[in-house]
Amino acid sequence: MQQALAEAKKAFDEDEIPVGAVVVVNGLIIARAHNLTETLNDVTAHAEMQVITAASDYLGSKYLNDCTLYVTLEPCAMCAGALYWAQLGRIVFGATDPKKGYRCYKAALLHPRTEVISGILENESEVLLREFFGKKRNLLK
Which one, out of 106, 119, 132, 133, has a CA that is 20 to 30 A from the CA of 13? Predict the structure, then answer.
């Protein structure tokens, strides 16, 4: 999770929403990414989407059922859908997203075999997000 947080800090430094992600299999980080929505001018360029693509490329497979995703923020519905199709084995996330997180929806958005662990480095993830959006709000004043 520390590595996902390091990716989130890279996003922060690049003026991207500070969300970072890594995919691990057998104790090895095989993919790392952070949000690139501003850089790529692409609303789908969330950290999770980037890291799914990188992990699938590394493994030569579209299925990530033996993998764990560590991500600093609860995935949104779009990312949860992609994680469903990738059949991800486990998701570990830090901060919850009460407005746009996948758990806001009543539908089962994750694969039924996906294990979910939340609240890991939650405070550190939230602090980074609060600082980022606080700076943005101050710029708008």
Answer: 119
Given this model, what pLDDT does residue 137 score? 79
Name the amino acid, one letter, at 71: V
The per-residue pLDDT for 105 is: 86
Assign 89 to helix, strand or coil.
Answer: coil
Q: Where are the beta strands (DSSP E) in the chain?
A: 20-25, 28-34, 68-73, 90-95, 115-118
Measuring CA to CA, which residue among 17, 22, 72 is closest to residue 45?
17
Residue with the two structure tokens 């996003």: 11
What is the chain's Cα-based Rg? 14
Nearest-5° angle of CA 87, CA 100, CA 120?
Answer: 65
Quote the pLDDT of residue 139.
62
CB 83 within 8 A of CB 107: no
In which residue ranges of the chain is pLDDT below 70? 139-141
Could you give the CA distance from residue 8 to residue 2 in angstroms, rounded to a whole number? 10
Amino acid identity at 103: R
